From TrEMBL:
Residue ranges that the Swiss-Prot or TrEMBL entry lists as coiled coil: 18-45
UniProt keyword Coiled coil present: yes
A molecular function GO annotation: RNA-directed DNA polymerase activity
Keywords, alphabetical: Coiled coil, Nucleotidyltransferase, RNA-directed DNA polymerase, Transferase
Record has Iron as a keyword: no
Protein name: Reverse transcriptase domain-containing protein
Recorded superkingdom: Eukaryota
Amino acid sequence: MFKQLHINITLADDLILMPKYQKMIKALLSNKEKLQELANTHLNENCSAVILKKLPEKLGDPRKFLIPCGFSELKCKALADLGASINLMPLSVWKKL
């Protein structure tokens, strides 16, 4: 999308039109080492996956998304976060449908 974006404006016009950024742009242009440091950004695995258009491997359906939990004498089941959008409703509402 941004590969075809062309902005035809001189640096002088840019500095006049954006007085808020004038000091920052002048500082970056006068200190090229700092500019190179800002240009090299380390990406985490989520960012690089988006840039490289690599999707994570799909896993099979675990069927149950309840995890049995035990706290001394209390036994319960907890919902596991599968990373998917799941809509839940009470059983009483489901039976009325």
